[in-house]
Amino acid sequence: NLKHTMQSSPLQSLVDDPTMLSTSHLPSLHALAVQVQYNLQYQHSWTDLRLHTHSPTANEPLPRPLLSGLPPERLYVHPDEQIQLLKDAERRRKAKQKEGEDIGILDVQARPELEWLLPTRLGEKWTLRRLSEVFNVITAVPPEPDATDKDDHRPTNPWRATKRLVLATVGSDSTVVYYIVHDGVVKPRQN
């Protein structure tokens, strides 16, 4: 007697859960969000992925479903933060060298941060007005998955001064391409 257990796919759970489809969003937009969520989880090792249908600021419906999640590595490091990380790493290196420890490789890692994601299709036309509508209803950082205080959406990173999201664009062959989009002008990175 062979016992076969099938794991439900994210798309199937979307269909099985009537609360997922009870918003003003089209089912195709929910399916798109779930497709991007699946890609992030299984192809890019993101964690704490959540689907959002309502704004965390006003609890009103979002213009379309958004995702939030934690990437395995930091996606964007502000240039000033990059300089500070290098200074801190150099300070640690000098302290280890003074104590006679093996210096090894200079560790300059920025901790990952929660990110907003906007699932889109390749053929969609995005204008500054449409992006602005999305930025107007999100917080600087997504709420923590286990957050109880709905009003505390301040970034823990002092260099994260503007809102940003990851534009997840799905092609006709299911390829997903990711772009970081900032709300406003952002200082360019140093190479």
Please give a quick description of this structure.
This protein has 191 residues and is α+β, with helices and mostly antiparallel strands. The chain contains 4 helices and 5 strands, in the order ααββαβαββ.
By DSSP, the count of extended strands is 5
* Second rung of CATH, namely the architecture of the largest domain: 3-Layer(aba) Sandwich
The total number of structural domains is 2
Give the helix/strand class.
Answer: alpha+beta
Radius of gyration: 20 Å
The CATH class label of the largest domain is: Alpha Beta
Percent helix, as a range, is 25-40%
On the 0-100 scale, what is the average pLDDT? Answer: 80
The H-and-E topology, N to C, reads as: HHEEHEHEE
Characterize the main sheet: 5 strands, mixed
Q: How many angstroms separate the termini?
A: 61 Å
Proportion of strand residues: 15-25%
Poorly predicted ranges: 1-22
Shape: elongated
CATH topology of the largest domain: Trna Endonuclease, Chain: A, domain 1
Q: Describe the strand arrangement of the main beta sheet, using strand numbers.
A: 1-2-3-4-5
**How many separate helices?**
4
Your description of this structure?
The protein is of the alpha+beta class. It has two domains: 10-74 and 112-182, Trna Endonuclease, Chain: A, domain 1 (3-Layer(aba) Sandwich), CATH 3.40.1350.10; 76-110, no CATH class. It contains four helices and five strands. The chain has a five-stranded mixed sheet, with helices on both faces. It is elongated, with a radius of gyration of 20 Å.
